[in-house]
Structures are given as structure tokens and as C-alpha cells.
Design brief:
This protein has ten helices and seven strands. Helix 2 crosses helix 4. The chain has two domains: 62 residues, NAD(P)-binding Rossmann-like Domain (Rossmann fold), CATH 3.40.50.720; 165 residues, Rossmann fold. By secondary structure, the protein is an alpha/beta fold.
């Protein structure tokens, strides 16, 4: 069995093992698209572009005087990358020219990985959360990461931080906690591409977002789980999955096989 996508938390691996069916994923598509999507979210929220746009519609006097504060330079801000695999690395490569200080947390990466890629490693997630002005998530959803930014995780963020999630909705599954952090101002803004329930149901935070309520103007951005998409990626994902099957049939080798127990 070859899965088109990368994440496989919804696949019953135990059932596949019992049936003797090998399972492979498709990790090498959409990397550029997700990294670009995350970078666009990071830069836009850091520059407060969406908030400027939302509020500028109501200005009836003055113009430049309405610049929002605080607003720091990129080389005075720290971005924390949670998960420094393919996509996390691609995000780092895109961030570096802007001058951000870049932290990375990924216990799965070997010592020295940070030197090869170009980021500062943090040994504990709490260190990254406390130091980062912007936190972007690029890790899978598993027993260790589900609810990573629940109420406790959000409380550990630096006051006024920005959160970007283009990974898995389960990483920020508590919308009550997210709403509270945004309302209090502890969280300056959030950009989310993946939700636990899609399309999203009813929740006060989502209602405020849909209704463009003033307190949330430009501070919550939600895209419909399409960070992976481009016309090129849509072809690539199908082509790569087919190549995986062809290699298995021709060589008896299943690339990108998942063997989690």
C-alpha cells in the first residue's frame, strides 16, 4: 500500500501488518510549497500585513499615522522551528536571508545537524518556546506531539509570540486555549493551515474569524489545508507514488516504507 501523502497517523498500521500488507508513504512532494506557505505566513504576520489591511479599510483620517506597534525588524526577531526535517530545513533555508535568528528543536536529528543546516539547536522544547518571537510547526502528529500547543504549551510561549502551523491540526487541537491566548494578547497572532476537523465546525474562535470581529482583525489566518498544493505538486505526488509501486514491482524494493511498531 502506498499513501499519496506524508502523514500517516490515520492509517491503521497494526491492521496492515496483520494482513501482511507493506506500507509506504510519499514524503518527497510538496516540500517547496509547504515551506513557501509557512514563510508567507511568517513574514505576513511578522509585518502585520493582514492586520494593517483589515484596519486600513476603516481609516477616515490620517494614513501613515496608523502604523501598528510593536513592529520589529526581522534581524531583531527569533523564529523557532519545531521539527527540522525536510520541510523544516526548507523553511530555514528561506528564512536565513531575512536575517532572523533561527532556533530548532528536533530530538530526531543527529548532533551536528544544526551546524550543517545553519540554526541554533535547543535541547528542550520549552527553551525554544520561551525565546521565539515566532514558532512554526513542522513535526508529525504522534503521542509525543499531539496537543503540543495546548493551554500549557501556549502559556510557555514568549508574550506577544506568533504561531504558524502548516503541519498537523492535532498539534493545536484545543481551540478554547487558542482563543484565550489570542484574546488576552499573550499570543499576538496565529496562522493555521490544518485543523483537527475539516471543514471546521462551530466554535467561538471560528465564529469570530468568520465574522471578522474587530478584536481578531488580521490576527488569525486560516487556509484550507492547501499548503502542499501547486499545479506541479499535484502531478508530483501522483508520479512519485506510482514510481514507488514501479520500483517495488521491478526491483522488489519498497522505498519510503513505514515500519513503526
Amino acid at each position: 500500500m502506498v499513501h499519496y501523502g506524508v502523514g500517516y497517523e490515520k492509517i491503521d498500521l497494526a491492521a496492515l501488518r496483520r494482513a501482511g500488507i507493506p506500507f509506504a508513504i510519499n514524503p518527497d512532494y510538496g516540500t517547496e510549497e509547504v515551506a513557501d506557505h509557512a514563510l508567507a505566513m511568517i513574514l505576513s504576520l511578522h509585518r502585520r500585513l493582514w492586520e494593517h489591511d483589515a484596519r486600513a479599510r476603516g481609516y477616515t483620517s490620517g494614513w501613515q499615522i496608523h502604523s501598528l506597534k510593536p513592529l520589529s525588524r526581522s534581524n531583531r526577531a527569533t523564529v523557532g522551528i519545531v521539527g527540522v526535517g525536510r520541510i523544516g530545513t526548507a523553511v530555514i533555508n528561506r528564512l536565513r536571508p531575512f536575517g532572523f535568528r533561527i532556533l530548532g528543536y528536533d530530538p530526531g536529528q543527529p548532533p551536528g545537524h544544526e551546524k550543517a543546516i545553519g540554526y541554533e539547536r535547543t535541547e528542550r522544547l520549552e527553551e525554544l518556546l520561551a525565546q521565539s518571537d515566532i514558532v512554526t510547526l513542522h513535526c508529525p502528529a504522534n503521542a509525543e506531539t499531539r496537543g503540543l500547543l495546548n493551554s500549557d504549551g501556549l502559556a510557555r510561549l514568549k508574550p506577544g509570540a506568533i504561531v504558524v502551523n502548516t503541519a498537523r491540526g492535532e498539534l493545536i487541537e484545543d481551540l478554547d486555549a487558542l482563543e484565550a491566548a489570542l484574546r488576552s494578547g499573550h499570543l499576538a497572532a496565529a496562522a493555521i493551515d490544518t485543523l483537527v476537523k475539516e471543514p471546521p465546525g462551530d466554535h467561538p474562535l471560528l465564529t469570530a474569524w468568520r465574522n471578522r470581529e474587530d478584536w481578531l482583525a488580521g490576527r488569525l489566518v486560516i487556509t484550507p489545508h492547501n499548503a502542499f498544493y501547486s499545479d506541479h505538486a499535484a502531478v508530483e505526488m501522483r508520479l512519485n507514488a506510482a514510481k514507488t509501486v514501479k520500483i517495488l514491482l521491478d526491483e522488489g524494493r519498497l522505498r519510503n516504507q513505514v515500519t513503526d511498531r
